[in-house]
Batch of 2 targets.
Target 1
Amino acid sequence: MKSLIENSCLKLEKVRESIAEVIVGQEPLVDRLLLALLCDGHVLIEGVPGVAKTLVITTLAQSMKANFSRVQFTPDLLPSDLVGSLVYDPREHTFTAEKGPVFANLLLADEINRAPAKVQSALLESMQEKQVTLGKETYRLPHPFLVLATQNPIEQEGTYTLPEAQVDRFMFKLKVGYPSMEDEHQIMRRMARSAPKTSVEPVIDLKDILETRGLLDKVFIDEKVEKYILRLVDATRNPSAYGIDISRYLRFGASPRATIFLSLAARGLAMLNQREFAVPQDIKDVAGDVLRHRMALSYRAEAEGLTSDDLIEKILNTVPIMEE
C-alpha cells in the first residue's frame, strides 16, 4: 500500500515540477489544486488581478492529458454558451445536441461572479450531478470533471453574488495574495521578455489520476479523528456549546458537505505526504479552505472587520482534538 502511494505521489510531483517551469511561487495554491484533483472536488479561487490565478489553472491543465475548456464569464453570457443547445436541421427536421465547453475534464470558469443567475443555475447542475440537460435528454459529463473558478474580490460593478447553494458545492475556497518580493523579482525576470514561457508538456494522463484516486479510500482515518471533524463542523453551528463566543458573528454554520470534504481532504493530504493514515493536523491544515465559504457572517462581523478565517482560527484553537 505504501509503495503504491509513493508511486502515485511521484506522478503528482511531476505535475508540480511541470507547473514550476512557468509559475513562480504559489506553492500553496498548486498543492491545493492537486489535492482537489485527487479528491474530485471543485475549487473557487479568489484573488486580485495579476496574481496568476488563471495561469496556474491553464498550466495545470496543460500538464495533464485531459480535455480543457475556458469560459470567460460576462453579464451577457447565456446558459447555452456554457452547456450547449439544440440545433435544428431544416433538411432532416430534427434537433441535434451541440455540446458546449462544459463538456471537458477541467473547466476554467474565469470571473465566475460576472455571470447572471440562469448561467449559475446551469453550472450548478453540472457541478453537482455531473450532467447536462439539453431539451428532454440528459448527457453525462466526462469523467473526471472539475470546475476551477476564479473571482476578483475588488470589483463590484457588473458582478453577481454567487448563490449559497452553488458556493457550497466548491470543495475549497482558496485566497491568493501578492507574491513575496523575492518571488516577484523572479516573476519579473521570467515574464518580462518578448516571448515568455507560458506552456508545458503533459506529464500525467487521466488513467494515472483515476488510479491515484482509487487509493484514497484505503487511507485510514480513525473514528476519533472523524469525531474531531464532527466537533469542528458542529462548532460552526453551535459555538456556545464549545465555549466560543462568536454566535453573534454568524448567521449560519457549515453544511454536512463540510464534514464530507474535511474527511476527504485530510486523507488526500495524508496521501500527498506519503502517509497511509490521516492525523488531526491534516484536518487543521485544510479546515480554512473547506470552511471559509460555508460560514455566513452577520453584519456585526463585517462591521467589526472580522472574516470567516478569524472565526475558524478561534474554533481550531478551542475545540479539543480528543473528547473530554
Target 2
Amino acid sequence: MENFWGIGKEAALLHENSVVWDSHGCMPQSMEHLPKVISKLSQYRDAGVNIAHINLGDSYYPLDSLVRVAAYLRHWIKAHDNEYQLAASVEDIYEAKKSGKLAIAFDIEGGQALQDQISLLELFYDLGVRWMLLSYNKTNLLAGGCHDEDPGLTDFGRLFVDEMARIGMITCCSHTGYRTAMDIFEYAKNPVIFSHSNPRALADHPRNVPDELMKACAGTGGVQCINGINLFLGGEIPTTDMMVRHIDYVCELIGAEHVGIGLDYVFSSGVDPDFSSEEYSDYWPPEYYRGSALCDDTLFSPAQLPQLTEVLMKQGYSDKNIRGIMGGNMMRVAKQVWK
C-alpha cells in the first residue's frame, strides 16, 4: 500500500486496517453556506476515516432547519455515491470501508427543536441520525445544560431516552449538566456516550467532564470521545501530543475500551459565528468563550488522525487498544444500540 500520510509503514498499515470513526463533525448549519463547504468532507476520506457523524444542528436551530440540512446532506451523499455512503446500519460501515467510501451518519445536539413531539425521534432516525443529546448547554423541558441551572433528567426526558433505546438511537451526554448526565447514566438501559468531551481534570472548562461522570459513562458500557478543540484540550494550538495526553488520562481512569474520537471539527464557511458575541451568549457564556475562535489553528483536523495512530503506537498502546480508540469501541456501541 502507498503511504500518503507521512507516517511509518507499520502505523499506516494499522490505520488502514482499523475502522476509523469520528463521532462528531460540524458542517455549516444553514442552507446558505452548506453547499459551499460540503465538498470538504473529502478531508475525512483522505485521512483514512471510515465513518463520520455530521451535525444537523444544535439547540440554536429550529426544526425546519434540521430537516432541510438532513435532506440536503442525504441528497448530496446519494449524488456522490462513488465516494460516500449513508450509514444506516453497522453493515453499511463495513461495506463503505471495503469500497473505499466514507460512511456518514448524522447527529443532533439537543432536543430543543423537537419540543414535546417524541415521534420526531423516529423520523430523524429514518433520516440517518444515530446519536442525539437531550440538552445543548441550555436547560430545556428534557434535561439540564452544562451552562445553565441543571434540574436533572425530567420525566419527559426519560420518555425520550426510552424511545431512543426503542428505535436504536444512541444517547449522548456532551453539553449536558452534571446532574442530568448522572441521571441518564443511572436510567439508561443502553450504553451512553460523550461524543465529543474531554476530562475536566486536564482543562477546567464547564464543557469538559469530571472523573465521576466518565466513570459513570463507562459503567453503562459507553465511550468517551476526545474533542480536538484547543479550548477543551487546554492549549493554544491543538497537537497530537495534547490529544494523546487526554486519551492517556481517560484510558487510565476508565480503560482503553471506553475511549474514542470526536474531533468536533468545524468545516469553516468563512462566516462562522463568533461564539463570544452577545448574540450567542445564552448558549456560549462570554466568560467561558471570550477570545475563542474556530479556525485551522484552534482545531485538531481529520488530517492529523493518521499521526495520532502512529503516536499511540510509539506510546506503547497495543494494536487492539488503538483499533478500539480509533473506532472499534464506537463500533461496539453501535452494534449494541443501532437497529
